[in-house]
Design a protein that fits this description.
four-stranded antiparallel β-sheet, binds flavin-adenine dinucleotide
């Protein structure tokens, strides 16, 4: 099964492509140097309905589902954007779903539940006037989600939060952070999710972390010292945080899988263009059988990854139980991407190693895709369990 290209989705692709061409490409290098994307980009994307794709209108979104979000992600990268840009501009894709799910179905009506979380955080974020982040990972470890040590002790109508988080995407700019905390003792595994606002006493944003890639996406360390968070800012019932995190992992993993195959597709395009234009020993590179077969093989890998990710995404959208398949889809797409970015850079020769080359950015950006949202090794563990091992 593939994601059907309906007339609405073709329009969505055109809208995304026009947005990237007009609003992103002229500035992307500058944002990469600045280490972040400007806040007004969020407002611009919201205004044309792009930011809210995949969120119901009842919470301020533009409607559409997971498959529409995949179309947007794919098109951003295919039209010259990057996975770093997707991470920075669409951080709400990981920061908001737990809140929306706790208030109803993400694709449905979202009527019940703590409406004030929707009004205070979800609507302004989808309108592009607030930025949210998701904080699970801690300095002591990220893969072992149940081992979280940031603790929230109940004190009347507040929680008192102590601990720290690291590698948090958009953490420098975020106005609020959907934060995983443990309820009992550090490492107890009884997790809850709290929305913690920037500016709350005791909540400090540490240094901006410098990285190999994703330069336009700010990444931060966060620390919490006796931070008083209203109980009303808890997402869902107490101790349901672990389940909520696991439930939302499917969408995050599919987004990362999409970023991976779309990066691979983009790099094949860049390599084909380069090999047509570049001549060595008196002939265009693309005229040599060795090079044409290399490009054919790269194209095949990228297209096969896309087809499998789409197939799994369609099954997730149909609410089929495909936890193992989601893990396989991410690993397949990331492996294809790693292979293709490396080969595409090689085909560019020395130019591929320069900051001026788009392929150089994809090569650096791609490296995180096998680490974020569950490492390849952790996903292999899920796959092995799915095999009954
Ligand atoms: C740029 C960037 C952005 C990020 N954004 C966010 C964000 O917004 N929010 C957030 O919460 N986190 C974020 N992360 C964190 C990311 O999710 C974690 O880095 C990831 O989950 C891995 O956790 P870790 O770094 O602690 O590695 P560890 O868990 O310490 O793992 C280290 C290595 O050991 C392997 N390993 C671990 N356990 C096992 C095992 N049982 N068997 C075999 N191998 C194992 C891992 O696969 C990995 O290779 C981000 C990270 C980066 C670099």
């Amino acid at each position: 099964m593939t994601i059907v290209d309906t007339p609405e989705r073709r329009q969505l692709r055109e809208l995304t492509r026009a947005f990237v061409t007009r609003e992103v490409l002229p500035h992307l290098d500058e944002w990469e140097r600045a280490g972040e994307v400007p806040r007004d980009l969020h407002a611009t994307a919201a205004k044309i309905g792009l930011l809210g794709v995949g969120f119901p209108e009842s919470v301020g979104g533009s409607g559409g589902d997971l498959l529409d979000s995949i179309v947007v992600t794919e098109e951003i990268i295919r039209s010259g954007g990057s996975s770093g840009l997707v991470a920075a501009l669409f951080t709400h894709g990981i920061a908001l779903p737990h809140i929306v799910a706790a208030c109803g179905d993400k694709a449905g009506s979202a009527a019940a539940g703590p409406q004030h979380l929707i009004d205070r955080y979800v609507r302004p974020t989808l309108a592009g006037t607030m930025i949210g982040a998701l904080a699970i990972t801690e300095p002591d470890g990220g893969s072992d989600v149940a081992g979280i040590r940031t603790c929230a002790r109940r004190d009347g109508d507040h929680y008192v939060v102590n601990g720290s988080k690291t590698y948090i995407t958009s953490g420098v700019r975020a106005d609020f952070v959907t934060t995983a905390v443990c309820a009992d003792f550090p490492g107890s595994g009884t997790l809850s999710l709290l929305v913690i606002e920037k500016g709350t006493p005791g909540f400090t944003v540490g240094r901006r972390l410098e990285k190999l890639g994703w330069h336009c996406s700010d990444t931060a360390e966060l620390s919490f010292t006796d931070v008083r968070v209203p109980v009303a800012n808890r997402i869902g019932p107490e101790d349901t945080g672990f389940l909520a995190i696991m439930q939302q992992f499917a969408a995050e993993r599919l987004s990362l899988a999409t970023q991976a195959y779309a990066t691979a597709q983009r790099c094949v395009e860049l390599a084909v263009k380069w090999c047509r234009e570049r001549s060595t020993f008196g002939q265009p590179l693309a005229s040599r059988q060795l090079i044409r077969h290399r490009l054919a093989e790269l194209h095949t890998r990228a297209e096969a990854a896309r087809a499998y990710v789409h197939d799994v995404a369609v099954r997730v959208a149909a609410k089929q139980p495909v936890v193992t398949e989601v893990a396989m889809a991410k690993n397949v797409a990331v492996a294809a991407c790693d292979h293709v970015v490396d080969a595409a850079l090689q085909l560019h020769g020395g130019f591929g190693y320069l900051r001026d080359a788009e392929v150089e950015r994809h090569y650096r950006d791609a490296r995180i895709l096998s680490i974020g949202g569950g490492t390849t090794e952790i996903l292999n563990e899920i796959i092995a369990k799915g095999m009954g091992l």
